[in-house]
Amino acid sequence: MSASFALSGCNGIVMKPHGDIAQQQADLIVTSTLLMLLIIVPVIVLTLFFAFRYRQSNTEATYAPDWDHSTRLELVIWGAPLLIIIALGAITWITTHKLDPYRPLDRIAEDRPVPAGVKPLEVYAVSMDWKWLFIYPEQGIATVNELAAPVDRPIHFRLTSTSVMNTFYVPALAGMIYTMAGMETQLHAVINKAGVYDGMSAHYSGPGFSGMRFKFHGLSDTDFERWVADSRAGGHALTREDYLKLEQPSAKEPVRRYASVEPGLWGAIVDRCVDGKKMCASQMMAIDAAGGAGKGGVASTMRSPWRDVAGVQRERIVVAALCTPTNPLGLPIETAAVTGAALKN
């Protein structure tokens, strides 16, 4: 009774979702649970039966203190769990690849393949402290703490984070996907029934975590186009300056809509160089891949004499990155770094 009361507040959306990916995941949970119950239930029943049958007060039970082995019993004890493990392993292997979040959808529902010529809806999701930013590159709009998609159309999410690791989770749509700063994760999913569903962060990320929720609207094609038009009419442009303000920590942010998005913003978010004042992550990796700033890398060295406090003449080795307009990598850096010193006789 107490368990039923505790669960009465749950709406069961995890086990009865309205998206094909989430439904397949729910079916996997049910199948795995039933397979494990094939072992768990008999073990519990037999444990209770043996405790009752061979209790001390039952003088009619067989008393065999020297019994120690039964080949038939050993086969049952070890064989049955082994078969269950093999079955679970096979199912897990198949579904792990079939439900890979990076794998494009080949169906929108059971016995309903993706219609020919239908392209997935592209959505970029950014987890912030403590809100969600969604960018629609094809529609040229962006929203804060509101997400929408047409029913029965595949959705391709690309996700990242501005700071700590987080998770994107719409129980009715699909499972949890992590977001990480400087990295991009992906999710392919579809919603099969119109409605308004809860979305959230499922990974604790600080004091504003509990308010890091949003609504996901499953809409018809006509209603989705109307939603996009309303977003364009009721918002202003999302520039880099606006993004930097939005990036500042804040809790329980209201829904916002942006009529347009500055080109290149998503790439700068993932590259962690929206403000334009620091080197992008991809540029750093390009320098590292080319050998770094050391000998044989993308750098030139210059020597300038100087004397230390003891009056000993030394040479300062200054490494200047080849980031001039003639640099083959074309990296916009005009700085120099002191990397060491050498004793000069």
From TrEMBL:
- Domain Cytochrome oxidase subunit II copper A binding stretches: 118-230
Supply the SUPFAM superfamilies for this chain. Cupredoxins (SSF49503), Cytochrome c oxidase subunit II-like, transmembrane region (SSF81464)
Localization, per the record, is: Cell membrane; Periplasm
**This protein's UniProt keywords:** Cell membrane, Electron transport, Lipoprotein, Membrane, Oxidoreductase, Palmitate, Respiratory chain, Signal, Transmembrane, Transmembrane helix, Transport
The UniProt entry, under CDD domains, shows:
CuRO_UO_II (cd04212)
Instruction: Name one matching Pfam family.
Output: COX_ARM
Domain Cytochrome oxidase subunit II transmembrane region profile, residue spans: 6-103
Report if keyword Transport is assigned.
yes
What the entry lists under NCBIfam families is as follows: CyoA
By what name is this protein known? Ubiquinol oxidase subunit 2
Annotated organism of origin: Roseateles asaccharophilus
Q: What is the lineage of its organism?
A: Bacteria, Pseudomonadati, Pseudomonadota, Betaproteobacteria, Burkholderiales
